[in-house]
Amino acid sequence: MDALLSSFTAVAIAEIGDKTQLLSLFLAARFRNKTAIIAGILVATLLNHAASAWLGVWAAQFIPAGWGPWLLGGSFIAVALWLLIPDKDDSDDTAMLKYGAFVASCVLFFLAEIGDKTQVATVILAAAFDDAVWMVIWGTTLGMLAANVPVVYAGSWLLQKISLDWARRSACAIFILLGIATIISG
User: Fold this and answer.
1) Residue 115 carries which DSSP code?
2) Which of these, 83, 146, 94, 148, lies nearest to 116 by C-alpha position?
3) Separation in Å, CA 91 to CA 19, 65, 96, 108, 158
4) Which of these, 144, 20, 17, 140, lies nearest to 85 by C-alpha position?
5) How confident is the model at residue 164 (pLDDT cuts 50, 70, 90)?
């Protein structure tokens, strides 16, 4: 259960102000079928994060015993600092839009996640919880959905109410606290 909750929390927080939230907003403005957009996000995230988690499990065999909490805590702090760098929407792949909401969402989300902080977090979490890789995959996927589904349904309204800069700074502080707590408890 720790793997699921840690993965969910890490990704849900890391997604605040991320380019995939901007992509969610773009897709919601472009397509009326919100269910297809969300299904595309789900499939893309499951595929991307499953591959990332398996990479993390493979990499875990090379991490010396006792380094786990330090690597995980340090990674949380690194992600915290990464959160301070604002993402921009780089979803200029308008050719993909002609295939409809589901295909466009699935392909664009999969591509947007490559090398993204949540993909890196998934690799690290799977290495830390290598005995619960499926919980990591489900946790990171549910975290991605928790951060992006509200944007699909209420993105314009949310952007008017919440400052992305404030949200990124708050998420940064939470990640730093998680990192410190992980190191101390390890």
Assistant:
1) T
2) 83
3) 9, 41, 10, 7, 20
4) 17
5) low
Consecutive H or E run containing 135: helix 133-161
Q: What is the pTM of this model?
A: 0.74
Q: What is the CA radius of gyration of the chain?
A: 16
Q: Half-sphere exposure (CA, 13 Å, Cβ side) for 14? A: 29
**Structure confidence by residue, pLDDT tens digits, 11-27:** 998 887 777 887 888 88
Residue-wise pLDDT tens digits, 109-160: 898 888 788 888 888 888 888 889 999 999 999 999 999 999 899 876 766 6
- Do residues 27 and 152 touch, judged by C-beta distance below 8 A? yes
CB environment 116-153: b (16+ within 10 A), e (fewer):
bbbbbbbbbbbbbbbebbebbbbbbbbbbbebbbebbe
* Beta-carbon-side half-sphere exposure of residue 182 (alpha carbons within 13 Å): 24
Neighbours of 16 (CB within 10 A): 19
| pLDDT band, residue 46 (cuts 50/70/90) | very high
